[in-house]
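Field log, afternoon session.

UNIT: design team B
ACTIVITY: writing a sequence onto a fixed backbone
BACKBONE:
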């Protein structure tokens, strides 16, 4: 038994020596351990997922428009630098009702009108379709496909419409009414007359306030001058009044004493 144990011991040592000599899988070329390989898993450093923003505490600001297309801010509610309670981490598109109703031209004069579609930069992201709208008729599509269009006034009013399209769907629509030359001149003269009448009313109110202030100031000045010039009379009147008050008080005191 002792001899068999002695033979087995060298065999076990021979079997264990190759295992002990083998380098661990995280060892470097020089036999030292590669700390980075130990610290990081295979495949490199772990990166956040594509949907990391969705797991944050976010809040969305108000849309910049009430119709059509606009932008809104994306706010981070915690983890902001400098101890801020909120910070902007980005912006995104936002949409409102498609129909924006009747718009106002960029500029106009007695001969032409400049109109614009609804869009956000960059301008070439969208497709623009201009139409002429007439009651009880099919809309007439114009060849202009730009975001801004200039038209000349006609002898009758014309309604134009611009549709902003994105991803094969209408995302915004606005109309403009271009009045005729004579109608525009009439409206412009009416506005001028209305402005002149408002100015006349304002001038009349200003003159009334000014005259009232002058009369009140003159009255105060004349009252002061009268008191200064007739101070003796005023003093005598005040003194007689005080004497009458004293006489009345004495009579009251005597009557009260007689009653007692």
């Amino acid at each position: 038994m002792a001899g068999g144990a002695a033979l087995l011991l060298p065999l076990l040592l021979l079997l264990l020596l190759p295992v002990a000599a083998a380098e661990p899988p995280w060892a470097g070329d020089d036999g030292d351990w590669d700390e980075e390989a130990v610290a990081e898993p295979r495949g490199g450093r772990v990166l956040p997922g594509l949907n990391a923003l969705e797991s944050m505490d976010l809040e969305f600001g108000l849309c910049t428009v009430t119709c059509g297309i606009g932008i809104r801010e994306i706010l981070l509610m915690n983890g902001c630098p400098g101890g801020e309670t909120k910070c902007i981490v980005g912006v995104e598109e936002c949409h409102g009702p498609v129909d924006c109703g009747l718009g106002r031209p960029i500029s106009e004069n007695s001969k032409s009108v400049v109109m614009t579609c609804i869009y956000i930069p960059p301008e070439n992201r969208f497709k623009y379709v201009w139409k002429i709208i007439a009651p009880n008729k099919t809309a007439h599509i114009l060849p202009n496909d730009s975001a801004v269009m200039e038209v000349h006034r006609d002898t009758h009013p014309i309604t134009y419409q611009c549709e902003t399209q994105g991803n094969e769907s209408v995302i915004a629509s606005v109309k403009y009414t271009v009045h005729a030359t004579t109608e525009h001149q009439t409206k412009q003269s009416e506005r001028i007359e209305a402005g002149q009448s408002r100015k006349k009313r304002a001038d009349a109110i200003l003159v009334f306030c000014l005259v009232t202030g002058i009369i009140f100031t003159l009255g105060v000045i004349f009252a002061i001058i009268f008191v200064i010039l007739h101070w003796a009379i005023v003093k005598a009147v005040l003194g007689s009044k005080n004497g009458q008050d004293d006489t009345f008080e004495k009579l009251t005191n005597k009557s009260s004493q007689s009653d007692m």
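LOG NOTE: Residues 109 and 184 are 9 Å apart (CA to CA).
NEXT ACTIVITY: expression trials, pending approval
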